[in-house]
Specification:
Length: 284
């Protein structure tokens, strides 16, 4: 049982690491909360793609001088970055208590590697996220029939002048920033230790998405979310986004894996704890 402790004049709490999620948990299939979480991931990703891709196409149209737009018209790259970061803030806030608010296969993959979710939940979350992304982009296409294909459908692809290695590195580093922020903002040990400091976890996560978009929109259009890239590619269905699609899966998954290893093994000293536990068991 946890109890309050005095530290530096503030009340803090005892903390014990929660047990790791089982690889396969058959009991999840009997719980309504499991299916509710999958639905929440589907709806959240649908809304995320709907708002953000619609923002991208709207900006492209408003800044297209050939069609009567203005060079500085629309929300600009800053506004696009805010749309992505702001929607993640809103949707993580809304769904965190239901599904954890992943809204991103890379985030789900990182949490799976850290044993925060089971394999079954991770796979079904990813499927729901990809399906939600496809439906969100389909809604955008139905509302923006006149401009959807003309302005690229919000699909991710490597920009001209950048090598494949540069694009892949941008996706790896960008996803690392995001998933590392997710681990840090939702770390229960940190929440227990710093319980006197109110932290709204969706806020730093949304800001991480915002900052990464500012940096990498000119390179890849910023994926850092395989579902976002996949959904847009499916509905737009042109060669370039499909040719580059692997970048937006391999890069985010590598970035998520590095973030999980860095946070769990190095910062949380997971390797040291495992070694200490092994030494204790062998000395008995």
């Amino acid at each position: 049982m946890s109890k309050d402790l005095e530290a530096g004049g503030f009340a803090t709490k005892d903390y014990q690491d929660p047990p790791p999620a089982p690889l396969i948990d058959a009991d999840e299939f009997t719980q309504w909360s499991f299916y509710r979480a999958i639905i929440a991931e589907f709806v959240a990703t649908l809304l995320f793609l709907y708002v953000t891709v619609l923002t991208v196409i709207g900006y492209s149209n408003q800044s297209d001088i050939k069609n009567g737009g203005q060079i500085c018209g629309g929300v600009g790259i800053l506004g696009i970055a805010w749309a992505f970061g702001g929607m993640i803030f809103v949707l993580v806030y809304c769904t965190a208590g239901i599904s954890g608010g992943h809204i991103n296969p890379a985030v789900t993959f990182g949490l799976f590697l850290a044993r925060k979710v089971s394999l079954v939940r991770a796979v079904l979350y990813m499927a729901a996220q990809c399906l939600g992304a496809i439906c969100g982009c389909a809604l955008v296409k139905s509302f923006q029939k006149a401009h959807y294909s003309e302005y690229g459908g919000g699909a991710n692809s490597l920009a001209d002048g950048y090598s494949t290695g540069t694009g892949l590195a941008a996706e790896i580093i960008g996803t690392f920033v995001l998933v590392y922020t997710v681990f840090s903002a939702t770390d229960p040990k940190r929440n227990a230790r710093d319980s006197h400091v109110p932290v709204l976890a969706p806020l730093p996560i949304g800001f991480a998405v915002f900052m990464v978009h500012l940096a990498t929109i000119p390179i890849t259009g910023t994926g850092i979310n395989p579902a976002r890239s996949f959904g847009a590619a499916v509905i737009f269905n042109k060669d370039k986004p499909w040719d580059d699609q692997w970048i937006f899966w391999v890069g985010p998954f590598i970035g998520a894996a590095i973030a999980a290893i860095y946070h769990q093994i190095i910062l949380r000293a997971g390797a040291v704890k495992a070694l200490g536990s092994f030494r204790s068991s062998t000395s008995v």
